Amino acid sequence: MAATYAASVLFSMTMLTFFPHLYQMGYELFEALSYSGVDGWGVRFCQLDNNRFPKKEFVSVRNSSNILVTVLSTTVLAACGGGSDSNGGGSTPEPLYGIGGTVTGLVNSGLALENNGGDNLQVAGVSFEFDTKLADGESYSVSFASHPDQQLCELANASGSVAGADVDDIDVQCRSWGTEALIENTSEHARFPQIALDGNGNATAVWQQSDGTYENIYANRYTPATGWGSAELVENGSSGHAYWPQIAVDSAGNAIAVWYQDDGTNYNLYANRYTASSGSWGTEELLESSNAGDVVYPSIAFDSNDNAIVVWQQSDGTYESIYANRYTPATGWGTAELIESGNNGNATQPKIVFDSADNAIAIWNQGNGSDDIFINRYTAGAGWGTEEVIAIGSFGNAVSPQIAIDSNGNAIAVWLEQDGTKVSLYANRYTASTDVWGGEELIEDSDDGHAYSPQVVIDSNDNGIVVWHQSDSGNTNSVYAKRYTPGAGWGAEELIESSISDDAEYPKIVIDGDDNVIAVWHQDNHLYANRYAADTGSWGAEALIGGGNFSVNGPQIAVGGDGNAITVWYQYDGTHLSIYANHFK
Prior knowledge:
Blueprint: E1 3-11, E2 16-18, E3 22-24, E4 27-29, E5 40-48, E6 54-63, E7 68-74, E8 96-97, E9 99-104, E10 112-115, E11 118-122, E12 127-129, E13 134-135, E14 139-146, E15 152-156, E16 159-161, E17 167-175, E18 181-182, E19 190-197, E20 203-210, E21 215-223, E22 227-228, E23 232-233, E24 242-249, E25 255-262, E26 267-275, E27 280-281, E28 285-286, E29 295-302, E30 308-315, E31 320-328, E32 332-333, E33 337-338, E34 346-354, E35 360-367, E36 371-379, E37 383-384, E38 388-391, E39 398-405, E40 411-418, E41 423-431, E42 436-437, E43 441-442, E44 451-458, E45 464-471, E46 477-485, E47 489-490, E48 494-495, E49 504-511, E50 517-523, E51 526-533, E52 538-539, E53 543-547, E54 552-559, E55 565-572, E56 577-584
Parallel strand pairs: 9-17
Antiparallel strand pairs: 1-2, 1-5, 3-4, 5-6, 6-7, 8-13, 9-12, 10-11, 10-14, 14-16, 15-17, 18-56, 19-20, 20-21, 21-22, 21-23, 24-25, 25-26, 26-27, 26-28, 29-30, 30-31, 31-32, 31-33, 34-35, 35-36, 36-37, 36-38, 39-40, 40-41, 41-42, 41-43, 44-45, 45-46, 46-47, 46-48, 49-50, 50-51, 51-52, 51-53, ...
């Protein structure tokens, strides 16, 4: 594409005079050109071809009353750099250079780039070049104006300075959802999958599956080089039914799975560890020895030094209580520890998260008559503190707590609470520097139906995003998102899917290292996803990523250090429930 440059012009009765030759704000200004008989002003356009040589000159001339007098269109004149004339010396235009690069993985429309905050370029192929070229030494900075539909892209080599040649090494790599894959092949029901990814994109999925006699815990491994392996039993399969597996992975790719299992009298808590260096699972291990009551709902997380803490709910004979056990690579598992006083009523549904300093927060709901939201903090090197109530169920139960924590230890907790009319979504924020929770806050705006299944993440700038599903006036469930910004608080809720008739329910959410967010949910007999791009601050359009003619349930999602994500779910195939996965890469 030829470039066009404009130059302001001053002239009097007998002489059309251009400003001195210079480069300013993207325009070439050239030397004098005579034009007789007009007293006024004008603008000259000098068009260059793709090789930066002058091609044609246009002069728009207006008189002092701003009335167009004439437009001159000539072949190259001396002042446009193409030779000389009798009224002024020639000037060769300064060479300009293209800014561009390549695109990998683009499958959908909507990708747009901009350079230096402008020069918007729609990209549809495997390469690109901006329309505006730059001079030697000028800076460029390429960013996204928009990501393609249902994709997320990354930029490499996106900024620098022109060094006497075209810039052609800007790299755009785009991720998209693949095709669903069955990751186990038995004829018995499989359900309740969980998944974790390490920094290299290796994944471990675990789930509960029948062998015809017992419910057992199985696992499968994914590596970027070889894909999914074969399903593998990770407990002995003969000690009674095993339920509710959870999984976490450390910085070296080692994984720990936890679950509860029936011994004929009680449900007990077990764990097994996968060692990345040997590529094998160890032997299951009992993590608590109480016979007072059943274990349910374990939750596990790793810190930055590969230590893990698991928390769970267990009866002490009077109340449901919250316990914890800690794993270290040097010594293995410790002993079970009660992390709440046990005299505030039944405590249920614990969750745990770590910050980058290896401090943790556990959260649960607890009460006797109506439930409140409690937390306890684990401080690295010191252990557990004392439980603290962060929300009081004023009208009814406060339940289903979730929590996210950032690298600085700031946290956002969300939960559901009866507000006297319906179940609504509430939040509270913890500031690590002051060690203070800010106070509970209603964060959804609908007066229609109940809110369900909140999930929350925090990015590297302390911004939070929460997703949930909520029924409308017609009792159709939809998936919403809302964003928290420090200093501004919670923004407006946003519908992130477009169905008007099918229930969209039970969203899950993850955040990658670039602060992009991916949400998945099930809707009718299908699985959908949507992504939030941090650099554009916007959600895209939802993508259909799985499902078919039968029910889809229990989606879970995890993201690796490479930015790729995997979602797993269970799905009926007409005969039995099976475990499926899809990859965003």
